[in-house]
Amino acid sequence: MSRSDSVVGSPSVNRSWTVIDFVLIWLGGLFGSALLATPGVLADNSDLTIILALAGQYLGNLAVFLLLRRRKEEREVGFRIEAGDFFYVGLGLIFQIAMALLILPLANLLFPDGRPPQEIAETIAEADSLLLQTSLVLVAVVIGPIAEEVLFRGVLLKAFERRGEIFAVVATAFIFSAVHILGLGTEDIWKSALVVLPPLFILGLVLARLTQRRGRLGPAIFLHSGWNLLAAFVLLLPSDLV
Q: Please, which residues bridge with residue 15 across strands?
């Protein structure tokens, strides 16, 4: 047996990204969130708990991603940013406005007294602490888009592309929108899903296709950031003004 044959047959051979990798990274975020939030819970400090939980989530995602990346042939998930990518922040803002206007009639029909409840949205809107409010906006506009694009349009998109580019775009968009059900709370969850998830599915389609066409994550990260930027800004406005 040649040396190359023995390497190919080795159980430690590097592999491409898989859906299992995506799940492991996702679970790493859940574990990290629970672990780091513990001091805040013990101190009975809700603001500290939220900040530590968010930090733990993304640190957990990153830790598992880096551990898995060491054994991959395709270590690169396209995390490259260029100066011109900042242009996509503006596109994200415009896209968010367009989707909000498109879904507005349905939103008014299902929620005539206000916007659909979302846990993270209500947390930002009701945050009394400037530190908490700043942390949540930072996560929504900077940290969240980076982490989610690496996870969804990096790892998961590459895992699905072996079944075809179109399949990968649709599948990642569906999963991307579906996981946001976890942030809708328990009150009128299905009505909220009808309003919140379709725009997120469309956003997922655009982000995935944009990543495929550009061959890197920079444009998707900044478009995602622009989308979240407008949402975070609206949530900081007084409810009667909104």
A: 72
What is the distance between the alpha carbons of residues 144 and 142, in angstroms, rounded to a whole number? Answer: 6
The one-letter amino acid code at 176 reads F
What mean pLDDT do residues 204-233 have?
93
Confidence class for position 134, pLDDT limits 50, 70, 90? confident
- Mean pLDDT, the chain, whole residue set: 85
CA angle 101, 106, 112 (to 5 degrees): 100
Residue 85 confidence (pLDDT)? 95
Q: Supply 173's token pair.
A: 């968009």
Handedness of CA 90, 100, 55, 49 (dihedral sign): positive
Q: Is residue 26 predicted with pLDDT exceeding 60?
A: yes
- pTM of the model as a whole: 0.86
Annotate 118-170 with three-state secondary structure.
CHHHHHHHHCCCHHHHHHHHHHHHHHHHHHHHHHHHHHHHHHHHHHCHHHHHH
Spatial separation of the C-alpha atoms in residues 27 and 68, rounded to whole Å: 13
Q: In sequence order, which ranges of the chain are alpha helices (DSSP H)?
A: 3-8, 19-42, 46-69, 87-110, 119-126, 130-138, 144-148, 157-160, 165-178, 189-214, 218-236
Residue 73's Cβ-count burial label (10 Å; 0-12, 13-18, 19+) is exposed
> Where do the domains of the chain lie?
16-75, 81-242
Contacts 24+ apart (CB under 8 A), 97-105: 97/230, 99/199, 99/202, 99/203, 100/199, 102/199, 103/195, 103/198, 103/199
Task: Give residue 3's pLDDT.
Answer: 40
pLDDT value at residue 5: 43
